[in-house]
Amino acid sequence: QVQLVESGGGLVQAGESLRLSCAASGRIFAINIMAWYRQAPGKQRELVAGITNVGHTNYPSSMKGRFTISRDNDKNALYLQMNSLKPEDTAVYYCNLQQRVDDHDVNYWGQGTQVTVSS
To answer: According to the model, what pLDDT value does residue 62 have?
Structure first.
């Protein structure tokens, strides 16, 4: 089993920055993909950014420019630097880890951290 705990969310004003962290523990394999997703009220959960265990990153086109994902494999930690925040970035942000277990891709989720951006 894998446990993911997010931190760093909060209330900020438009234009400010936040850095989210995710601490991973448990049965983590060397090959995995970690990612940040977010879900705003009344909307579907969407990918913010992903990163492989060797550092390859993936950003949906709508997320490029203001968000930077990074990880520290020694600490089993995932980060999301968010700059120039906008009210539409308000959402619950979730940490995700995907790895192959017994020939199946298994996804693990954190409990989420609330980010609120006021105008």
So the answer is: 87
In the chain, % of residues over pLDDT 90: 96
Distant-in-sequence contacts of 40-49, Cβ < 8 A, 24+ apart: 40/88, 40/90, 40/91, 40/92, 43/91, 45/94, 48/80, 48/93, 49/80
Show the low-confidence residues of the chain (pLDDT under 70). Answer: none
Sign of the C-alpha dihedral, residues 13, 6, 36, 50? positive
Compute the distance between CA of residue 86 and CA of residue 38 in angstroms, rounded to an integer: 14
- Residues 106 and 27: beta-carbon distance below 8 Å: no
pLDDT of residue 2: 96
The answer to whether 1 and 21 are in contact (CB under 8 A) is no
DSSP state of 43: S
3-state SS, residue 86 = coil
